[in-house]
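Example 3.2
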Amino acid sequence: MEKSDKKIRTPLFHIAKREAMPWYFGVIVRAVAVVAALIVAGVLVAVLTGKNPIQVYATMFDGVFGHSDRIWNMGQKVAILLGISLAVTPAFKMKFWNCGAEGQVIIGGLATICVMVFLGGKIPTPLLLVIMLVASVLAGVIWAVIPAVFKALFNTNETLFTLMMNYVAIHLVAYFLKLVAKDGSGVLSPLPQYGLPVIADKAFLLNILIVAAVTVAIYIYLKSSKQGYEISVVGESENTAKYIGINVKKVIIRTLVVSGAICGLMGLLIVGGTDHTINTAVVGGRGFTAIMVSWLAKFNPLVMVLTSFLIVFLEVGSDQLNTMFGISSSIADILTGIILFFIIGCEFFLRYKIVPNKNRKENA
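Structure, written as tokens:
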């Protein structure tokens, strides 16, 4: 019998996981990714709109930093997105895929506005603020713990469960608006007189200070506390966690209590500190954007400050492009998508390297 001639070809390259590398390597790779993204996005904008890319980026920068009011508005948006990102981080680090931050923030905002509508002007302001805080945090906790309990006891799919809870929260807000908006418009007039206090004549300063404190607290909680260690172990392997005596069910529920409490607090800051009213789109999709912020930062609360700033900068800058040049929001979204694509894509080169096969040959 004759053997069939089969040639086994060795590939030109193979992918290998990187070993530990200096911190500055990651900084360089990400910086290169940002520069490359800006070049590609600039060329695309020039082709589609005929605008000078440098002028486009200058306009985006002016839209964010061109006036003190714009800077404070930017700080407010960064603070809220950062706060929601901090909320989902403990659960995601534990590999509990909490996609319900949107609903948890909405329900916290709903609890806040209920207190403002039904108790505002009827009790002293300090007591009103305390009740608003307790109600919003408790509502967020309840909304997060429900799927956590089902996951811990019945191993349900937390992704679908938390997503469905979002829709329930949205429809509860819609029902509430039908009850309180007697004219049938479904719009509730702002109630700034019952909102959070203004510090140093800066409407958003209190929000920023609260989120800054939460950022430090969550960083310490995840990095230095026993509970943070248990979250990491459960995220790596539930079997290992059980083997060393960690109560996995308890950790799941406790972690979602933390996530829900922060989401509820963000609902208080949005409704009580910024909008002073509520509608079904009050969170504006930030519950889902927060997932990307958390992943980009690799669950590091301090790095999330930068990733939150980046996302908001692109969003606000794109709005300025629409205002100044009449560039359609679709192109602005494409611009944002390109930059994020490059930043996310560079993570591959931080984790892996492409190695050429030096001894490539054909074997018969």
